[in-house]
Amino acid sequence: MNVKTLRVLFTLAALGFTQASDARGQETFQSPSLIRLQQQVDAQAFEIDQLKQLLNEQQTATSLPFGIFPDDSDTDCTPGSIARIPLVIQQPVEVDCDGLLESGPSHQTIDFYSDFNKGFTIVPFDKQAHPFQLKICSWIQFRHHDFEQDITSWTDQSGTTRSVRHRNVFDIERARLVFKGYAVDERLTYFLQLDGDTDGSHTVDFMDYWWGWQLTENFRIQMGKRKVPGSRQWIMSARRTRFADRPMANDFFRPDRTVGIFGIGTIGERCQYQLMAGDGYRNANVPNSRSDDRFAFAASSYIDPWGDFGGQLVDFDHSCTPLVRIGHSFVYSKQTSDQRGVPLSEADFVRLSDGTRLTQTGAIGPGATVSNYDIYMYGIDAAIKYMGWSFDSEIYMRWIESLTADQPLPQSSLEQHGFYVEGGRFLIPKRLDANLRYSQVSGMFGNGLEYAVGFNWYPLSVPQVKVTFDITELDSSPLQSTPSDILVGDDGTLFRTQFQAEY
């Protein structure tokens, strides 16, 4: 028996003697070697607990939604992906009056992570503990347009002669910054869109801003400022137009933005509708002192009978099956004034089919100024895309009733109508598409025509970056629209080149 074995036996005997003594309560003495052994056991137990805690943290971290993942919301033939990056913010805990840390950990952790999914987002891990989400996205349209006029002047219905000028300018037409998400409760959403452009005095405008509440799974309300839901291409984003901008007929008949209450709902999986009660037909940025005391009402709906049509007019994704959208829109607004013959600013948007402003003195009758009227607008639209081909069209009818002026008028109502048709095809999938357009506005005071041809080039094979070039032939334009670079009385050729980028 060697010395090492004797030491082990001696230690075991000492342990047994000590435990027996403790059991009988006859001996309380512990040897220094036993105390050191107990301390080592406690230290090892503490280290094991620390290792377990680190292991649990690593397992939790690996289960978090970080990395590259398929985009489940993308139902296209080739769905995209999203990238999620952790964002953990630590804040030091304040010390108490004695300079000591409060009870608990020395730092507080706010559990949010950053993501990029069609915009930069800050998303909570636990929506109930941290009910807040923010997405920031932006887009810009940088444009050059050159208008070569065929005439130097035109005379409106009141007998006023106006010049038609040559134009050749660079322009930032739309520079948008969007903040959206939810706060306080996941059902309480917000949306804020800022807009700046160089033909709008270089100022930044609160283009859209509203709060929304998800009442049911299929219906939500929004309260604030946004588009009046009338005309399909107007409701769609200006980023998704087939040419540099919307058709002439669309801009002539469509409403604008207003402040009001909006209801948005779905019926089944393929039908969507919008309802609105707001301040006016076209009274964006019109102060209350220049607005009337009557509301405007609007409704719009569409159905996608063969599947989700999506937000693109062109068939960028080369649809495997035909996709169709059919819809219609209706808007009613009563325009009144405080004094007959003195129209409010809200009523100044309507023009006759030759471009004369309806409220201009002499527009309807010699020396008469229209100040009150009722306006009804109805549009029906259809679109289809399949295997790189695409086509869309909309027909407009507008009735202006109960005309009232400071003098007798030769008629008390007007009727205007118009339409556009446009289509195109991708010559190189996801790279290059070519398009054609015809647009017309008609009425008892004349007709306005638009012919256009153009193409879109996607240099990165993604819809977020697009270069557009188009040529538009205008004949007696009744439209005044700086966003589309078409002015009233234009008769000639318009060239537009535009670079568009978004994130």
The end-to-end span amounts to: 81 Å
Q: Helical proportion?
A: 10-25%
Q: How would the global form be characterised? A: elongated
Strand arrangement, largest sheet?
5-8-9-10-11-12-13-14-15-16-17-18-19-20-21-22
How many β-strands, per DSSP? 22
Structural class: mainly beta
Following the backbone from N to C, one meets helices and strands in this order, namely HHEEEEEEEEEEEHHEEEEEEEEEEE
Structural account:
This protein has 503 residues and is mostly beta strands. The chain is built from 4 helices and 22 strands. It has a 16-stranded antiparallel barrel with strand order 5-8-9-10-11-12-13-14-15-16-17-18-19-20-21-22. A two-stranded antiparallel ribbon has the order 6-7. The longest helix has 31 residues, at 32-62. The protein is elongated and about 120 Å long.
Name some characteristics of this structure.
4 helices; single chain; two-stranded antiparallel ribbon; 503 residues; disordered N terminus; 16-stranded antiparallel barrel; elongated; mainly beta
